[in-house]
Amino acid sequence: MQQMSPKEYNQYVSSLSPSSPSYKNVLFAFLIGGAICAIAQLIRTGWMAVGFDEETAGTLTSITVIFCGALLTGLSVFDDIAKVAGAGTLVPITGFSNAMVSPAMEYRSEGLVMGVAAKMFTIAGPVLVFGISASVIYGIILVILQQFG
């Protein structure tokens, strides 16, 4: 059998791979991600309408949207939305709740502690570690710049 060069191999793989409907994917990600954000804004407006100040309404909105994302993941609805929306479901905070609940549901048969609790952070854990680490580094840089700048 004849050896292919890397360039020939890439051309071969490209010829066999189905083309991705990029424009359609971008449009659906934009529309559905935007709809999620618009719904969150309506929720925030609702919290403010019942008497909460802006900061508290923002916090309650985050909690509500995370809960809805987790609930939809638990009901297997979030995955159906994500199939159409693609990255549109990852950008808002709903992606975080999905990343927490999906592994927990997948490993629930292994028990509450070793399954759900231990596997819950398999996807979100690295994001949390690097996000928290980055915020600490940025905070230190900010303090240094404020002291000497």
Written account of the structure:
- The protein is an all-alpha fold.
- It has a domain of 85 residues.
- 77% of the residues lie in helices and 0% in strands.
- The N and C termini lie far apart (66 Å).
Please count the helical segments. 7
Distance between the termini: 66 Å
**What characteristic shape results from the CA principal axes?**
extended
Stretches where pLDDT is under 50 for at least 5 consecutive residues are none
Order of helices and strands: HHHHHHH
Structural class category: mainly alpha
Per DSSP E runs of 2 or more residues, the count of β-strands stands at: 0
Rg calculated over all Cα atoms: 21 Å
β-strand percent reads under 5%
- Residue-averaged pLDDT: 86
Specify the biggest β-sheet.
none
Helical proportion? over 70%
Throw out a few tags for this protein.
7 helices; 149 residues
Give the SSE layout.
Layout: H1 6-16, H2 22-49, H3 54-74, H4 78-85, H5 94-106, H6 112-119, H7 124-148
Helix pairs in contact: 2-3, 3-5, 5-6
Please sum up the structure shown.
The chain is an all-alpha fold. The chain contains seven helices and no strands. 77% of the residues lie in helices and 0% in strands.
